[in-house]
Design goal:
heterodimer, A: about 170 residues, alpha+beta, Umud Fragment, subunit A, five-stranded antiparallel sheet, 2 helices, 5 strands, about 15% strand, elongated, disordered C terminus, B: about 180 residues, Mitochondrial inner membrane protease subunit (chain A), hydrolase (chain A)
Chain lengths: ~170, ~180
């Protein structure tokens, strides 16, 4: 009786592990389905749209300009962001108006190390990283025109098929 | 005759069943739990590859311990190279987000590591393609933590998270 239950439990566990691994391989190497939330990709992708992902292009490194990709957020690796690729390595991209731009924050903290420490004024400002409407970041490995923080495409990205709309040149947020 | 055919079919069925169980489980294990890798290059001398070109160290890479992106200062980690996503590089974590550190040969002398990023350096300063070259890297590029050296046998050891005292951050967020 007891051995019966034990046997059944082990079989259940075995099946769970097996199907879990198959699901992991399918999602990791082939593709899957996710729900996108947030207004930053409107009107291409609306809030709560369901998109189909394709992981094969990522594994073959064939992401092109204009593709919509999903990547790990540079400032929070546990969350993902869904954006369009504007430029790849070697491309020069222009930022748009200052209200739409985010640069890396850098400052020299200690002007005088002998006891008196005075933070100098920050040379660049962080803006809008919390405002979802303004966060239209570009994901690429370009020669950044201003030497600001480079955000490499993390390898944890996939892409969904670009929709029918014409490619809109989004403002670069970098 | 019919029996031989039946046997053949049963073997094929058993083989396919085994195949579809073993391959996903192994792939998932190597992707998510642990794998093994050979270290190339001299950027982590003397901790890894002290012998130079003769014998490369083989390390155990642990994916499971970084599933929540929790690393300590001094850990040896492997990450996707920011210059070439097809390559992995293995370096030591020097600073975490919020730390202010003094750099060696970077364009800015002092850097505050931004949120969600880390600063990695090879132990062999000057011969290492690390954060002193490309700046802070996002935690999203973390691949695994190197926990043990498995080969050569005389170098079997557990890799400890050791931060050289001259590379300690000047100010950490916790202080």
């Amino acid at each position: 009786m007891f051995q019966d239950v034990l046997g059944k439990t082990f079989r259940l566990l075995g099946y769970t592990i097996q199907y879990g691994c198959i699901a992991h391989c399918a999602f990791e190497y082939v593709g899957g389905i996710v729900v996108c939330s947030g207004p930053s990709m409107q009107p291409t992708i609306q809030n709560y749209d369901i998109v189909v992902l394709d992981n094969l292009s990522r594994h073959f490194y064939s992401i092109q300009k204009g593709d919509i990709v999903i990547a790990k957020s540079p400032s929070d690796p546990k969350s993902n962001i869904c954006k369009r690729v504007i430029g790849l390595e070697g491309d020069k991209v222009c930022t748009s108006s200052p209200s739409n731009f985010l640069k890396s924050h850098s400052y020299d903290p200690f002007l005088n190390i002998n006891g008196k420490s005075q933070p100098s004024a920050p040379r660049q400002e962080i803006q809008g990283s919390e405002k979802p409407t303004q966060k239209k970041s570009r994901l690429a490995r370009p020669e950044a025109a201003r030497g600001s923080q480079k955000w490499s495409l993390t390898d944890q990205y996939t892409y969904c098929y670009p929709s029918n709309n014409s490619v809109i040149v989004l403002s670069v947020l970098f | 005759m019919a029996q031989a055919r039946d046997l053949g079919r049963r073997y094929i069925k058993a083989f396919l069943k085994g195949f579809f169980v073993a391959v996903p489980v192994t792939v998932t294990f190597l992707d998510r739990v642990a794998c093994v890798a050979r270290v190339e290059g001299a950027s982590m001398q003397p901790s890894l590859n002290p012998g130079g070109g003769q014998v490369s160290d083989v390390v155990l890479l642990n994916h499971w311990s970084i599933r929540n992106y929790e690393v300590q200062r001094g850990d040896i980690v492997s990450l996707v190279s920011p210059r070439n996503p097809e390559q992995k590089i293995i370096k030591r974590v020097i600073a975490l987000e919020g730390d202010i550190i003094k750099t060696i040969g970077y364009k800015k002398q002092y850097v505050k590591v931004p949120h969600g990023h880390m600063w990695v350096e090879g132990d062999h300063h000057g011969h290492s393609f690390d954060s002193n070259f490309f700046g802070p890297v996002s935690l999203g590029l973390l691949h695994a933590r190197a926990t043990h050296i498995l080969w050569p046998p005389r170098r079997w050891q557990k890799l400890q998270p050791v931060l050289p005292p001259e590379r300690k951050p000047l100010l950490t967020e916790q202080e």
